C-alpha cells in the first residue's frame, strides 16, 4: 500500500544554488529496502545542515531529503526481525546522506540499519540522543577503553553546547568525571553547569598559537568535537598517557600538529566514527544509553520543532554554531 507524506526536499538549481522546501511525496518514490518506517521523530545534526545546503561531501545527488536520524513505527517489513508496529530507529549508515532521510513522514531502509527501541527509552528520547548522543557515547566508550578513569583528572569537552558536546558533558559527569566545558557561548554556562560541567574555557582560551610543541599537561582526557587548532592545543595540553577522542570538524578538518604529544607523553588520539559503527557494538552502546549510562535527557532537548520550523530557522542556526543542545523534529 502506498502512502503520501510531507518531506523536506533539497533541489539543486541550474546555477548551482540549492533550494529547500516542504513537498508532498509518496512511499512509492522511496528507495528499495526491507523496512518501511512511519517516522514520528527525527533530530537535527550538523551533518544534516551540510546536506540541506548542498555539501557534496555529504550528499552527492539532489533532489534529496536529509535527516541522518529517524525514529518511528514499522509500517511494512519483509525481514523477520521486524514486525508491523515495532518501535524502531535508525541513526547513521547512509540514511540522510544519499538515501532519503528522516526529515520526512516515511523512510525505507535495509533491515541491517534498523535498531529496535530498547526498553528504557521512548521514541522521543532516542532522538534526543540521535547520532549526536550515540557519537558522544562512542567517544566515551573509546576513552574509557583506552584507560581513562575519573581519578586520573579533568576531562575537556570541546564544542560543549553542541549536540555531541552537550551529551558528552552530561554522560562524563554522570560517570563521575570532572568535566571542563570548552565553549564559545559564555551565555550558556548555566546550561552546561546543569549538565554537570564544573569549569569553562572560552574558544580563545582553547587555542595556543605558539610554536611550543607541548604545553603544561592539564587534561587526563579530551572529548573533541571541533578539530583544527582547538584539537591541536588540546593534544599539546594532555597529560602523560592521556587520551583524546576526535569526531568532528566544525572548527577545521586540518590538523597542524607535531608528533611530540604522542612520542613524548604517549598521548592517544582516538578516532570516532558513528556512521558505520558495527551493529553488535551499536546495540551494546544503545542498551547502555537506555540503562546504566542513561542521562537526564530533559535539559538537553532545548528545542522541539516542526519540519517547517526546521527549514525556516534551525538549519541556519546550527550552521552558524548557534545551536544549544539537541533539536528534535516532530514529524
Ligand atoms: P553542533 O553544531 O550541534 O555542535 C558543534 C558545536 O561546536 C557548536 O555548538 C559550538 O559549540 C562549536 N563550534 C561551532 N563552530 C565552531 C568553530 N568555528 N570553532 C570552534 N567551535 C565551534 O554539531 P554536532 O554536535 O552535531 O557535531 C559536532 C561535530 O561532530 C561536527 O563536525 C559533526 O560533523 C561531527 N560528527 C561526527 C560524527 C562521527 O561519527 N564522526 C557523528 C556526529 C557528528 P560552543 O559554542 O559550545 O563552542
Automatic annotation (TrEMBL):
Its EC number is 1.3.1.95. Residues 13-329 form the Enoyl reductase (ER) domain. InterPro entries: Acrylyl-CoA_reductase_AcuI, ADH-like_C, ADH-like_N, ER, GroES-like_sf, NAD(P)-bd_dom_sf, Zn-ADH-like_protein. GO terms for molecular function: acryloyl-CoA reductase (NADH) activity; acryloyl-CoA reductase (NADPH) activity. It comes from the Bacteria. Gene3D superfamilies: Medium-chain alcohol dehydrogenases, catalytic domain, NAD(P)-binding Rossmann-like Domain. Transmembrane segments: none annotated. PANTHER family: ACRYLYL-COA REDUCTASE ACUI-RELATED, SHORT-CHAIN DEHYDROGENASE/REDUCTASE. NCBIfam families: oxido_YhdH. This is Acryloyl-CoA reductase.
Amino acid at each position: 500500500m502506498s502512502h503520501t507524506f510531507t518531506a523536506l526536499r533539497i533541489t539543486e538549481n541550474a546555477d548551482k544554488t540549492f533550494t529547500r522546501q516542504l513537498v508532498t511525496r509518496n512511499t512509492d518514490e522511496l528507495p528499495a529496502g526491507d523496512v518501511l518506517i512511519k517516522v514520528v521523530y527525527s533530530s537535527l545534526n550538523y551533518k544534516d545542515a551540510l546536506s540541506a545546503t548542498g555539501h557534496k561531501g555529504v550528499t552527492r545527488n539532489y533532489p534529496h531529503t536529509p535527516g541522518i536520524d529517524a525514529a518511528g513505527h514499522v509500517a511494512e517489513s519483509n525481514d523477520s526481525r521486524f514486525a508491523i508496529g515495532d518501535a524502531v530507529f535508525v541513526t547513521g549508515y547512509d540514511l540522510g546522506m544519499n538515501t532519503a532521510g528522516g526529515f520526512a513522514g516515511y523512510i525505507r531502509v535495509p533491515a541491517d540499519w534498523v535498531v529496535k527501541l530498547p526498553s528504557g527509552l521512548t521514541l522521543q528520547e532516542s532522538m534526543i540522543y540521535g547520532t549526536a548522543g550515540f557519537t558522544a557515547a562512542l567517544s566515551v566508550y573509546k576513552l574509557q577503553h583506552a584507560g581513562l578513569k575519573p581519578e586520573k583528572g579533568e576531562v575537556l569537552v570541546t564544542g560543549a553546547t553542541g549536540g555531541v558536546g552537550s551529551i558528552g558533558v552530561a554522560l562524563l559527569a554522570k560517570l563521575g568525571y570532572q568535566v571542563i566545558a570548552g565553549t564559545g557561548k559564555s551565555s550558556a554556562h548555566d546550561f552546561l553547569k546543569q549538565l554537570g560541567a564544573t569549569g569553562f574555557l572560552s574558544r580563545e582560551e582553547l587555542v595556543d598559537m605558539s610554536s611550543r610543541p607541548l604545553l603544561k599537561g592539564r587534561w587526563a582526557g579530551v572529548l573533541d568535537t571541533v578539530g583544527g587548532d582547538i584539537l591541536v592545543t588540546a593534544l599539546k595540553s594532555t597529560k602523560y598517557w592521556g587520551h583524546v577522542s576526535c569526531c568532528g570538524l566544525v572548527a577545521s578538518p586540518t590538523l597542524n600538529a607535531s608528533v611530540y604529544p604522542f612520542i613524548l607523553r604517549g598521548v592517544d588520539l582516538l578516532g570516532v566514527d558513528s556512521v558505520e559503527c558495527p551493529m553488535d557494538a551499536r546495540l551494546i552502546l544503545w542498551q547502555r544509553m537506555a540503562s546504566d549510562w542513561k542521562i537526564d535527557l530533559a535539559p538537553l532537548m532545548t528545542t522541539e520543532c516542526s519540519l517547517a520550523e526546521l527549514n525556516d530557522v534551525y538549519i541556519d542556526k546550527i550552521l552558524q554554531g548557534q545551536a544549544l543542545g539537541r533539536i528534535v523534529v516532530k514529524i
